[in-house]
Fold this protein.
Amino acid sequence: MVEKVERKERSRRKWRKIRNFFLLISLLVLFAGGSFYYYFPFAKGVKSGQLNYVVYKGVLFKTYEGKLIQSGIWSERDGGIQSNEFVFSVADKAVAEQLMSAGGQTVELHYTEYLGAIPWRGSSHYVVDRIVSISPLDSDEKKEEEPDIPSEIM
């Protein structure tokens, strides 16, 4: 009888070790996958366009978020294709403050794209890490052209 109980106990210990081993491996795989998903840079690049806004927002985690308007194809003439919006987060406070003062200007931003967004890094997959260039809008672009109306009509 004692032998039977000892065998059962050995069998239980063996299965506990196997279960704990697979549980540990599963946790390590989940941790490695999550680290890859949230911290591995998927892509890096530069986007340019007119800076729409940069704001400091959040309920629990305050982050800098912004939007860049990229001109579409043939956007200067009729029949042009709609512009694109590039929504991004800003990692560095100094970069964000510089962008806040450059609203409405044409900027080139270097960004890193991640597969997932983390609340304390920002709400976007795209994180701007530096400014490549800032150029003000030309005064010609700001002025609206007056229509050329023949004098006979007036």
